Amino acid sequence: MKNLTDISELIKNCTNCELSLTRTNAVPGEGFFQSKIMLIGEAPGSFEDNSGKPFVGASGKLLTKLLNSIGLSRDDVFITNIVKCRPPNNRDPSPNEINQCSPYLSKQIELINPTLIITLGRHSLSYFAPKTPISKAHGTIINQSGYTIYPTYHPAAALRQIRFHETLSEEFQRIPSLIKSLNK
Ligand code: URA
Q1: Integer Cα distance of 83 and 170 in angstroms
Q2: Residue 145's pLDDT is what?
Q3: Best substitution site from 59, 61, 63, 168 to test ligand 1's pocket, by max atoms within 8 Å of Cβ?
C-alpha cells in the first residue's frame, strides 16, 4: 500500500493532464500525516507553483495567521488542494483536470483519516458537495462518506472583502471546540 510520501512522489511526477505541461512544480500538500485537521484549497497559484508548497502567497499568510489564532501551526495540520498543479493564469481547474487529480486527494484523505476536513472556498466545497452554495454552507457541518466537512470562505476572498474576513476569523475560532466535540 502506498504511503503519503509515495503519493507526493507520484504527484510530483504526474503527467495525467495538461496542467503538467505548464507547471513549474506540482504541489502535493504538506503537514502532519496524523493530523486531525485537513485543509483543502482549490489549486496552487504562482507562489505555490514556484515553491512546490501549498498556500505560501498572500492567502497562505492569512491562513497561517488564522491557524496561529487558534493555537495551531502549519505543522499541526495537513494542507493541500483539490488540484495539485497551477492552472495557467489562475483560471478555474476544468472538470477533466479535477477528475484526473482527484484520486490523489482521495488517497491522501483515506491515509490521513482526518476528524475534520476544512474546505477553503467554493471550488473546494463543490468537490465534496456540488449542489451546496458556499453562501449557505460556510460555517456549517456537512457529513459525507464518513467524513465531517466544515466549509469556510477562501482566504483570498477574505483579503478582498472585510465581511468575509470577519466571518472566516469567527469560523476558525470554532474549530477547537468542533474537534473536541467530534472526538467524543
Ligand atoms: N489558493 C489555493 O486555493 N491554494 C493554494 O495553495 C494557494 C492559493
Answers
A1: 27
A2: 87
A3: 59
The pTM (predicted TM-score) of the whole model is 0.97
Question: CATH assignment of 4-182?
Answer: 3.40.470.10
CA 64 to chain centroid: 13
Angstrom distance (rounded) from CA 79 to CA 9? 16
Check residue 94 and report its DSSP letter.
P
Q: What pLDDT is attached to residue 2? A: 83
**Residue ranges of the chain whose pLDDT lies below 70:** 1, 184
Residues in Cβ contact with 41 at an 8 Å cutoff, skipping those fewer than 6 apart: 54, 55, 59, 79, 80, 81, 82, 120, 121, 124, 154
- Nearest CA, atom 7, ligand 1: 55
Question: Domain residues of the chain, as ranges?
Answer: 4-182
| pLDDT for position 22 | 98
Give dist(CA 1, CA 77) in Å, integer: 23
Torsion of CA 79, 168, 158, 135, to 10 degrees: 100
Residue 57 cell numbers, joined: 502567497
Residue 35 alpha carbon to ligand 1 centre in Å: 19
